[in-house]
Amino acid sequence: MSGTNGKIRHIHDLLVNKKITCKELTEKYIDKIKESKLNAYVHTCEDLAIKTAEKVDEKISSGKEISMLEGIPMNLKDNISTDGIETTCCSKMLQGYKPIYDATVWKKLKGDNAVLLGKANMDEFAMGSSCENSCFGGACNPHNLKHVAGGSSGGVASAVGGNIAVYGLGSDTGGSIRQPASFCGLVGLKPTYGSVSRYGLIAFGSSLDQIGPIASNVEDVAIVYDSISGYDTKDSTSSKVAPNDTFNHLNDDIKGMKIGIPKEYFDGINEDVKNAIDEAIDAYKSMGAEIEYFDLPELKYTLPVYYIIACAEASSNLGRYDGIRYGYKTKQYKDIEEMICKTRSEGFGEEVKRRILLGTYVLSSGYYDAYYKKAQNLRGTIIKAFKRAYEKFDVILAPTVPTTAFEFNFTSMDPVQTYLTDICTVPVNIAGLPAVSLPCGFDSKDLPIGMQLIGNSFSEDKILNLAYKYEQYTEAKYLKELDMGVRL
Amino acid sequence: MKYELVSGLETHVELSTKTKIFCSCRTDFGGEPNTHCCPICIGLPGTLPKLNKEVVRYAIMAGLATNCEINLISKMDRKNYVYPDLPKAYQISQYDLPLCKNGYIQLDSGKKIRIARIHIEEDAGKLVHKGGDVYVDYNRGGVPLIEIVTQPDIRSSEEAREYVEKLQLIMRYIGVSDCKMQEGSMRCDVNISVRPEGSEEFGTRTEIKNMNSLTFMTKAMEYEKNRQIELIENGGKVEQETLRYIESSGTTESMRGKEDAHDYRYFREPDLVTIHTLSEEVENIRKSLPELPTARIKKYIEKFGISEKDAESIVKYKNISDFFEKAIQGIENPKIVSNFIIGQIFSTLNNEQEKESFDIKVSAESLNELCKLVESKKINVGLAKSTLLKMLETGKNVSNFISQEDMQSISEEKLLEICKKAVDSNPNAVKDYLSGKEKALKVLIGFVMKETKGKVDALNTQKNILDTIKNI
């Protein structure tokens, strides 16, 4: 390994060399979270964080070795279940809900003595692209507080960009890791479907959801991914073939790698974004990669297919919130039917209700064939189209979002317009592929631009390798560390 | 006009696997409310199901035992509906690719009731009404079920009853379920329509839900058949609806009409992967299937020479049939054993339930021992019968009632000697017999029995006594 822009490694060295104690480090973060205006956190867990930090300090002072993630302050999106710590999906529906078990990813990180600072803001039940659908209000973009952090994992990106967490775990159903990473100038990885356990992730679209890391640089993302990936007996859809040593491949030679650029991804994208991507393409050429443009006409089906499948699954997944066992329950009712009905009417926000209705509709008898079945068939077509592309290319390069971060209230006018901004991110979820978004420029307003590298299934090592090489080549000039939060 | 009943059954059978279908919670009936539960079976947000492979194996056993084809590629689907006992608001079930299809169960008449499909699914919890409040107990939630769906081949409530009894017995024989209707481990939904006799078209059907006893099922079917006929005769029309049977009044009442029929919005369960079964696995399961009731009855009649009636009454109860199979080890004529079971043992069992549980004090080995004494003519049947009754009462072995000495068989010469003694000591009885009083012979035989403590064969004794009298 060469290059030293990894933040996790930097802090790890500070801890090991006793330049700072883990408790001091953690307290710094806790203080900055309290000061922060980003609205990135919705629940904090200071006691647990301090207790973990003390444990790590004890280990260090007694001369024991610590792993790379031990003592590193981080956060989790509020849809990842944490035993005894409120997990609400930023919905009124789950107010006060404390899980009685840990999500597999958190169990792994907890075992590594990761310092959990708190649960991060998100669009309600991960439905949205701006984080404004949170019952706690949206999270701000640290680059410009008038702009959104993106969504749905907006809180994680806001906190990492604003230096009030070193990294965080988000979830990506249609772009919810990559889009906020792109908006906040960060690196976000949506892993291959099945490479990270979904056990404990509160479901939105079960066949699309994946947990993944958001961090400020590629190396950190690789370290976190390596520690959370792998087969889990509790998740039948998790795979035994997921790579877990991407870190060791970051610096592999990329000469002769074939990068395909699907033309359709550039339709209607913002000029600044287009220029930045073109520049990145040139950079890869200079590094010795082979670039080729190609047609991916199936892309036009992806948005409708995505919204049909995701909403159908959501309508079923969200049926369990009835006020009987946990979470919000309406105050007055005359019978059980009214109780369930009022609880759901009052507990869910507008966007969630819209998607439940859409999903219920497309699964209803008489409409199933026209919508859900057709969408499933087209999903197969899209998967095949990507498969064909990977016979030719190692990786596909595309913009992450057609624009940079929107201003607050910009997207809430027309839901369909908002759905359209997901055009570049959803194909990956439909095909179950891995993709990493990484910063590649700034627009005229100095807001970050992101590009994504889309790999074939279980090629996280390859896309992170290409991402890392780009970061090195550009001397990390697009990783702008902001003057806020904890600076080390 | 004469009408014909047309009916098909959907039977839910709880599988007796140790753990639930998607988690490792226990499946036993009862228990304190909500103690056999975990985050998975109460559907806490974020949990995922994990299919218990044993459930698949049990379902394939059930399929093979009812002559089904096995789908080597199968999958799970979500059946969405809202009810407080269903904590995820969907039941994980199977829709268009059930594990088993196209089977049948043959009735005694030779008629086959075709089975359209058998699929696996999870059971729901239970609502408990107490003091005006409703409580939910999720202990039963996630207990594995198979649903066995017939074609509309049933033409009478008797056929329905026979089908269910046969199905129940098969499931018990292969050991996948105890099929206790009163505990809810077997429940039937009955689809019923009527049509003019000779007609080929089906009438509009109604469905009676959740029958939990065979008696109520047949009563409900009779009631519903007559209700439909009466309705049609009076110029009315049968409405497609779901009914509930009211046990107290013996009538049915509507739960919901066609307009309110559920739209379950089935779709593939995305949290579970395709179920692949290898044909070798199916063959292995087929080979390991225990002997089925029909095969046993045939064996008892044809090979053992037991009457059809006796064979059926033994096979009807798996516990008894298994007991019989054990008790005939090393016995040349199993009829000796079956006669003891039908005679002495059944006389101590007062009802169906006692036969079902077959909780008796005599072990199969102990009965076997007794029967061997009879077969080797060491004791006669009469003594064996009275001894067996004592054994059933006390739970003690044969040796407690019959001594080693008693078990010494009596030689023909010795028997003849005792018979002579009987004739000599009872001159009056001999005189009576010779004057035509046949009954007097019994006194003589009784004497021999007393002398030999019942160890000799009555017929042989009679023969010897008659010979002795002739020679006087």
Q: What does the radius of gyration of chain A come to?
A: 21 Å
Q: What is the name of the CATH superfamily of the domain at 7-258 and 401-473 in chain A?
A: Amidase signature (AS) domain
CATH architecture of the domain at 7-258 and 401-473 in chain A: Alpha-Beta Complex
What is the average per-residue confidence, as pLDDT of chain A, rounded to a whole number?
A: 96
Number of domains of chain B: 3
Low-confidence parts of chain A lasting 5 or more residues at pLDDT below 50?
none
Number of helices of chain B: 16
Number of helices of chain A: 15
Quaternary form: heterodimer
> What's the SSE pattern of chain A?
HHEHEHEEEHEHEEHEHEHHHHEHHEEH
Q: In one word, what is the shape of chain B?
A: elongated
- Total DSSP E strands of chain B: 16
Strand content of chain A: 5-15%
Helix content of chain B: 25-40%
Q: Catalogue the unreliable spans of chain B.
A: none
Rounded to the nearest angstrom, the distance between the terminal CA atoms of chain B is 78 Å
Q: Which strand-content bin applies to the residues of chain B?
A: 15-25%
* Cα separation of the termini of chain A: 22 Å
Q: Which keywords apply here?
A:
heterodimer; A: 488 residues; alpha/beta; Amidase signature (AS) enzymes; 11-stranded mixed β-sheet; two-stranded antiparallel sheet; 15 helices; 13 strands; 14% strand; B: alpha+beta; Arc Repressor Mutant, subunit A; 3-stranded antiparallel β-sheet; 16 helices; 16 strands; 39% helix; 20% strand
Describe the structure.
The complex is a heterodimer of chains A (488) and B (472). Chain A has a domain at 7-258 and 401-473: Amidase signature (AS) enzymes, CATH 3.90.1300.10. Helix content of chain A is 37%, strand content 14%. Chain A is built from 15 helices and 13 strands. Chain A has helices at 7-16, 22-35, 46-61, 104-111, 154-161, 178-183, 218-228, 271-286, 302-317, 336-347, 350-363, 369-392, 415-420, 426-431, 460-473; strands at residues 41-44, 73-77, 115-120, 140-141, 144-148, 167-172, 187-190, 210-215, 258-262, 290-294, 395-399, 435-442, 448-455. Chain A has an eleven-stranded mixed β-sheet, with helices on both faces. Chain A has a two-stranded antiparallel sheet with strand order 4-5. In chain A, strand 12 (435-442) and strand 13 form a beta hairpin. The longest helix of chain A is centred in the last third of the chain and has 24 residues, at 369-392. Chain A is globular. With 472 residues, chain B is α+β, with helices and mostly antiparallel strands. Chain B has three domains: 3-283, no CATH class; 291-407, no CATH class; 412-471, Arc Repressor Mutant, subunit A. Chain B contains 16 helices and 16 strands. Chain B has helices spanning 53-65, 157-173, 214-233, 279-288, 293-302, 308-315, 318-327, 335-347, 352-357, 364-375, 381-394, 404-407, 412-425, 427-434, 440-452, 458-471; strands spanning 3-14, 69-70, 73-74, 77-80, 90-93, 100-106, 112-122, 126-130, 133-137, 144-150, 186-196, 206-211, 241-246, 251-257, 267-268, 275-276. In chain B, the strands form four sheets. A nine-stranded mixed β-sheet of chain B has the order 2-6-7-10-1-11-12-13-14. In chain B, helix 3 (214-233) links the parallel strand 12 and strand 13. Chain A binds chain B through residues 79-81, 87, 89, 94, 97, 99-101, 103, 198-203, 206-207, 233-237, 312-313, 315-316, 319-320, 322, 324-326, 336, 340, 360, 363-365, 368, 372, and chain B through 39, 42-51, 78, 80, 82, 84, 87-90, 134, 136, 263, 265-267, 270-273.
